[in-house]
Amino acid sequence: IKTLELRMMRHCDNAMQVARFLESHPAISRVNYPVQESHPDHRRALKQMSHPGSMMSYELKEGMEAGKRFIDALKVCVRAVSLGTCDTLVSHPASMTHYGVPREQREKSGITDGLIRMSVGIENAGDLLNDLDQALHA
Known about the structure:
Radius of gyration: 15 Å
Mean pLDDT: 91
Helix content: 40-55%
Low-confidence stretches: none
């Protein structure tokens, strides 16, 4: 508990850098992070939050196969179905937690083939961005 504030600041700072990077990446069609100006609830998030947190999701343009390649290519980020430690954890619900759910049903819940969920950790931000970039080019 003594270091929680410091860790949360690092989580949030890293998440902002990751969101900015992803939003400008050509392989990404959408980033869901409430403090990004492109998010529909941006103004509300700024009013309600002093820090944006570390949870986000984003959409890979090329769908299911791109999601699988991306997850398999990561070296720093950890593949996990449960999110929320000091490590950066990433999941591809369409091929992991929701694999057995029919596509139409998944999509009604917003779980598309290219959706990636991420809990950004406290690692070096440059290491995270480099890992994401190399995985997006895999």
